[in-house]
Amino acid sequence: MFQLSDVETTAIVLSLKVALVATLASLPLAIVVAWLLARCRFPGKGLLNVLVHLPLVMPPVVTGYLLLITFGRRAPAGEFLESWLGLVLAFRWTGAALAAAVMAFPLTVRAIRLSLEAVDSKLEDAAGTLGAGPLLVFLTVTLPLALPGLLAGTVLGFAKALGEFGATITFVSNIPGETQTIASAIYTTTQTPGAEAATLRLTIISIIIAAAALGLSEVLARRTQSESRR
Amino acid sequence: MSRIAFDIDHRQGEFSLIAKGELDGPVSVLSGPSGSGKTTLLNIIAGLVRPQSGQLSFDGTVWFDAAQKIFVPPHRRRIGYVFQEGRLLPHLSVRHNLTFSHWFRKPNGRSPALTDVTDLLGITPLLDRGPRNLSGGERQRVALARALLASPDLLLMDEPLASLDEARRAEVLPYIENVRDRYKVPIVYVTHSADEAERLGDEIVKLRDGKIQEIERRRDGTISVALDG
Asked: Is residue B7 part of a domain?
């Protein structure tokens, strides 16, 4: 009953790889966007905020479709990436990572933004009077003080990326060994008569991973709060 | 030549600061009741507040000139700033707070040595502690040492004793006098305490409602210069 089949093991490993790449590759951009939203005033800030949060509220199938018509092999951005970087996204695991990154982005940005806003800007001023320019203040003061919240946001984004289904299956389909993550593998087994045991195994595994990530994220977030209270 | 020359017109909501004058130091005290604009003037000198219009220069170098669109940011002004609440960086030890500026600023000819400063201020035993485990008086002495170790051309202090009780104040004030006598760095010192102003100031700038009432120069015959605002 609890023996995983090769297809299931492959799906689990692929899910972890997709979620890890999605999280790490989007993290620098998430930090920049969170910083822009937390600390800067500029025209178009409201629009940026809406754009970042759209994947959180749109039907995932819409996000997937938009990715498909933007990054498909015959779409402009897709053609550009393939001819200049040799990077194909459509129906590949890299595309699954992009879809997961886009879907997780709002959660990560929100968490990082909150932790940046919690950093006392008076400390940043103090660092400025000690000779540190704005970028160095960010790297030596803001980022270290926001670190627990930043890690919490990253873990939360990882958990979200791991469970992404709708945008992924729309953009890169459900190909075992290439784009079949835990979520799409469960979808397949629920459509297959007699595969109830496989569904149950994968379900239990995804609950365990999600709960562990959420727990870790909570612990880190709580540490940020107690830091800022001291 | 006067060290600091300013002609500032700054408005922020209801508050306005319109001030023109010259500070020769070596210790210039900005005094006045709360809301008089003394901290705002100090922050303008530091570059933490950018006024709407006017000019500011230090030792002949223009730090701010609205008409010419010149604004030297705080990290390029080579100042040391002692804040009322210390503002030690909570993620760094006392030692790393003290040496923080060394990552960004090349030492100049009269950069003091770490141990000289910590001995003078009596904080050598605290070096490996975290800022959270300091008393108020210790914290302000560390803040003063940190500003000094940034080898500043100008030392700014914003009510460094105001967050302390009477006993701690009496503990820290002599250290400030030691720093003044030992390091000869010009100081601009904000306070609402007449006692601190008397003890420290070579000149006392009296502010009220965002305007300079008078600049009283002392020690060289107590000449009072009244301004007509």
From this structure: no
